[in-house]
Amino acid sequence: MRKGQIIKALSGFYYVLSDDVIYQCRARGLFRNTKQTPLVGDYVKFEADNLTDGYVTELLPRKNELVRPPVANIDQALVAVSAKNPLFSPKLLDRFLVLTEFNRIEAIILVTKMDLVNDEEKIPLMQYIADYQKIGYQVVEISTEWSVDQTSFTNLLKDKSTVIAGQSGVGKSSFLNLLNPELSIETAEISKHLGRGKHTTRHTELIEVFGGMIADTPGFSSLDFEQIELEQLPFCFRDFEQYRDNCKFRGCMHVNEPNCAVKAAIADREITQYRYEHYLEFYQEIKSRKPRY
Q: 173 a known binding residue?
């Protein structure tokens, strides 16, 4: 019995990396009986007499997992948002950040296409960046000229499993090609009609880059909060953290309750109004979700 990590899943096959060798495997039928689905990033036990006819026999315990993109055991997320084309969206960024916080994955915000914004557009964008830095998120800015400081990205990625995720068309695949030109990942132009990117990544795969593993994932433009319960949502906003213990009521949802320290911090502009408005939108979205049985 060998141990390894699934680095790619495609057409019913799982590609398991073990001691620098990749084995093509299928999953044993027992996974269907237990309703387990192996994910890219899973550490597994497997049997293999050769490189092409192995079988995954057991999933080892996961640190975390994401539903979309389907990937497990992630240390950090590079959340890619573009400065322009498609337009920077703090609400969409906050959806990603809620999911990373819920899954206890450290998020690093990657703002792409910085060179496309003019001086007037740059003023509000830099304010957004400052806001996210203030609440503890690391922000990395890159341009369409695609030049990166290799040392800084080695420090960022080495010995980590990283998922790179974001709206279609923000430049995720171009960024990965920059980190490792041998990848030659397909990229596509922005759809002029839709104002967003075409999907170029069709499966999730872990790729070795700068001493770490990074997941290229299919792009998506909407995210839901199916796994998140209403009482968990406040803990997904890290800017609420230093205030919530001062709320009058334990379990305060920071919506209608009196003597809410979070709402007081918003009134004092210690928490940004737009982040709180996103919180209220997400709150209503989860609250109106149909019950699951």
A: yes
193 assigned to a ligand binding site: no
Where b means 16+ CB within 10 Å and e means fewer, 14-50 reads bbbbeeeeebbbebeeeeeeeeeebbbbbbbebebee
Q: What CATH number should be reported for the domain holding residue 190?
A: 3.40.50.300
Quote the pLDDT of residue 167.
Answer: 74
pLDDT tens string 200-235: 445 778 988 888 998 866 544 446 788 899 999 999
Residue 177 is part of which domain span?
Answer: 71-216
d(CA 157, CA 114): 22
- The annotation status of 219 as a binding-site residue, yes or no, is no
Q: Are residues 79 and 201 in the same domain?
A: yes
Residue 36 is assigned to a ligand binding site: no
Q: What tokens does 160 get?
A: 């980590």
Q: With 0.85 as the threshold, say if the pTM is over it.
A: no
Q: Is 198 annotated as belonging to a binding site?
A: no
Whether omega for the bond prior to residue 69 falls within 30 degrees of 0, making it cis, is yes
247 is in an annotated binding site: yes
